[in-house]
Amino acid sequence: PQPPAAAHVHVRVRTLSGRLVLEDASAQPSTPVEALIAGVCANIGARQDTVQLRASTGILMRNSCLGDYAPPAIPDGGGAEGSGEHLVAWDLTLLRLGRPPVDASASSKRPIRVVDAVPGVGALCHLDREYRFLSLGDFANSPDTMRYIMASNDDKRTPASEVMWTLDFQVGATVYLDFGHPSRVQRTGAAEWLERNGWSPSRMRGTRTSYSPTGHAKGPVFEKKVDCSRVELMGSNCSESTYLALSGYTCDACEFQVALLAV
Asked: Is pTM beyond 0.90 here?
């Protein structure tokens, strides 16, 4: 059944806990569901492909309009008297799809995966090497929500002009790049893409590993805040090693901290 001849549909979208995340008193039967999803995502800082809206009758399809469904005809005032038009109220529930906070992929197709913890002293740095962490620097004090992105060291020769890794975030993030030694910034082409892509020097102290137990340690570290988006990390262009990754988030603030560490 179609809704009554509604001049407007007063839409309210709430989380499962009842928090109001979107209110639109000017929606119409022709309003796309996708437009409501976009409004919700703008308010909560989420990607549109991780959000669904549910009515009492089921899930609203993204490619449909409100007029494809039948909002309950609860008088909400505002209709012209005798016009046959109604202003109806419709409460919807926000559903978040169960995707991880961050996905990682390598352009080389070599193995890369997200580990649900900060590596400890003695933990492996790569999936394809036996190098181990001797110190995590300031990253040793990371919160419990920090995640480690473990990749393949054979990606290290990816040119600085090409994408080496891609991080796909579902919320906003702070990303840290730890290059381990100034030469890995100045002599590899990294300095150019760091400046071009908006990275800034960080005050975080970097790591030390068994690859360079007394040498390449304590940075330099760069950082950048990003939104819920796909972040492309350019190649290391280095004969020694590539950087690794740590990621963390705060559920209430919906913000990640990501650290990409060099060995």
From this structure: no
